[in-house]
C-alpha cells in the first residue's frame, strides 16, 4: 500500500496583493487565501498514484488555525488524513524553523506509518524561497529531487522511483531510492474535480491539531522567532528610479512617437550595439 | 588575527562555468572591500574565495581567479561529475565547517536553489533567497558589519532587508543577471587549493539515468541582448506573433509578464520577473505590460527600456527610458516599418547611414 505525505501551505493570492500608496502597508483585505498552487499540483499527483496503487495520502501543514480551510480543501481533492501543526510559538518562523517543525512532524508520522514519497510544491508563491523542501529532506536524511515534472515509475516492492526533473538546461531522468522527497512543478498533474463523496467528507472534516503541548515535543529553541537565524531588519517599498520621457501617440502620431523613441535609443548608443551587424 | 572569508559558489555543468558564478565573485569582492577598514583596524585578514566542485574542472578554478577570487578550493572527484543534491551539499557543508566563511553566496539557478537550502539547513544557519541588494552594514549591537540582504517579498510588492545576526555563514542566493559581471584579469595572483574528497557514490542515493536535452531552439532570456516582452495588454495569445516579429527584427528573444504565463499564453521559460527570470539586456521593450513590481524587479537593470502602454499612468513608465503612450498594435507595426526602412538604407549606403528612422 502506498503512503504519500504532502506538505501544503496556505498563501495569499499574491496576484491580488496591493500596497497602500499612502501608508506603504500591504492591503490584506479582500485578498483571498488559497492553497499554494504548486502544493495543489503535488497533491493531485499523490492522489493519482494512491488511486492507482491503493493506499493513502496524508496532508501536513504548519500555520494558524485558519489553515484548516486548506486541509479541508486537500481532503476534498482526495486526501485521507490531515494534520495541522499550529501554535502561537511557531509564529515568525523563517525557513530553517519551518523545516524543523515540518521534519519533526513528518518523521513522527513516518515512524508509525511508513511514508514512501514526501511531496512538496517547488516553492510557495508568497515567499518564493524554495528552501523548506530541501531543508526537510536534509533533516530527515532523505534523498531529494526538486523541480519534478513527472513520475515515470513508482515501484513499492523494489523501493525505487524514476522521475523527470526539469532544469534550465535539460530534463534529468533520475532514479532514486524510496522513501524520497520530491518538490513538484505544476506540470506534474492536473488538478482533478473532486468526487462527490470526498466533497461531502471534506465539509465535516476536522484535521488533527498538533501543538507545542503535544503529541510531539518540539524544542522551544528551534521553533518560531527563537529558532529562526534570520530576522527582518527593515521593510520598504523599493526606491523609484527616475522615470524617462513619455511620448503620447495621440499628441504626436504613431510614426513620430516611434521615430523619437528610436532617436533616443540611438543617442544612448543602444541601436548601434543592438543592430551592429546590419550597419 | 582572524581570516574573514567571503565565499562564492562556482557553479559549473559539463565543464562550463555558469556566468552567475562570476557575478557572485564580483559581489563578494565588493562586500570584502566594505569591511576592509574595520578588518585592518582589528588586524584581521579579508579574503575572497571560490568553492568549486566537479571532475576535471581545474580550468574553471583558473577562470575563477581571473574573475577576482584570491583563492579557489577545488573538490575534484568523479562523484561530482554531474550535479546531485546529496554529494554536493554534504561536501559543501563540510567545507564550510572547516573554513568557517563569514558570507557564502550561491547563484539562484535551478542547481543553486536545490543546493542552497540543503547546505543552510545542514549548517543550521540562515539563508535569504533571491537577493537583489547585498551590503555589509553596521547594525546596532553587532561588533562587526553584517550582511544586509535585501529581497523582494510578498510577490515582489515590498522590499525586505534580512539579517542573520549570530549564525554563520550568512548565506544568500542571488539570481543570474541581478549583479554585473566583474572585470576579467588575464594575469591573476590567486591560488587553487585542491581539497580532499571523502564523499563517495554511496552517499548519493540517487543517480541520473538520462539527460534529455530540449529539442530545437531553447529560449534563454537571461543572457539575451534584446528582449521584447508582451503582457496582458496583448489581449490574446496571438498577440505574441507580433511580439516575435519585433524581437526577430531586433535579433532578440520574446519575454512575457506573469499574467500571460498564468493564462497559458506562452511558456514559463519566457517569464520575466520575480517569479520568472531576472534579465539585464541592452534593450528591453515592454508592450502591454502595466508594470507590477514583481515584473519591474526582473527587468529594471536593463540598459535601455522602452515601454508601450495605452494607460499613461501605468507603473511600467516609471522604469522606462522612453515611454510610448499608445496602442501596441499600432506602435509595433510602425517600429517594424521604421526598422525595415532603416535597414534598407543601411544596406543601400554601404553601412554608413546614421539616421535611424525613415
Architecture overview:
The complex is a heterodimer of chains A (279) and B (358). Chain A is of the alpha/beta class and 279 residues long. Chain A has 2 domains: 2-222, 3-Layer(aba) Sandwich (Rossmann fold); 249-278, no CATH class. Chain A has helices at residues 37-53, 68-77, 95-112, 132-140, 196-204, 249-252, 254-267, 270-274; strands at residues 2-7, 10-12, 18-19, 26-27, 33-35, 55-62, 81-85, 117-121, 144-155, 160-166, 171-177, 180-184, 208-210, 230-236, 245-248. In chain A, the strands form 3 sheets. Chain A has a 9-stranded mixed β-sheet, sandwiched between helices. Chain A has a two-stranded antiparallel sheet with strand order 2-5. In chain A, strand 6 (55-62), helix 2 (68-77) and strand 7 (81-85) form a beta-alpha-beta unit. The longest helix of chain A is centred in the middle third of the chain and has 18 residues, at 95-112. The N and C termini of chain A lie far apart (68 Å). The mean pLDDT of chain A is 91. With 358 residues, chain B is α/β, with parallel strands linked by helices. Chain B has 2 domains: 3-203, HUPs (Rossmann fold, 3-Layer(aba) Sandwich), CATH 3.40.50.620; 226-348, TPP-binding domain (Rossmann fold). In chain B, helix 4 (85-99) crosses helix 5 and helix 6 (239-249) packs parallel to helix 9 (328-348). Chain B is globular, with a radius of gyration of 23 Å. Mean pLDDT of chain B is 92; it is low at 350-358. Chains A and B meet through strand 3, helix 3, helix 4, strand 9 and strand 10 of A and helix 4, helix 5, strand 7, strand 9 and strand 10 of B.
Index terms:
heterodimer; A: about 280 residues; alpha/beta; Rossmann fold; 2 domains; 9-stranded mixed beta sheet; two-stranded antiparallel sheet; 8 helices; B: about 350 residues; 7-stranded parallel beta sheet; 5-stranded parallel beta sheet; 9 helices; globular; disordered C terminus
Brief digest:
The complex is a heterodimer of chains A (279) and B (358). Chain A is an alpha/beta fold and 279 residues long.
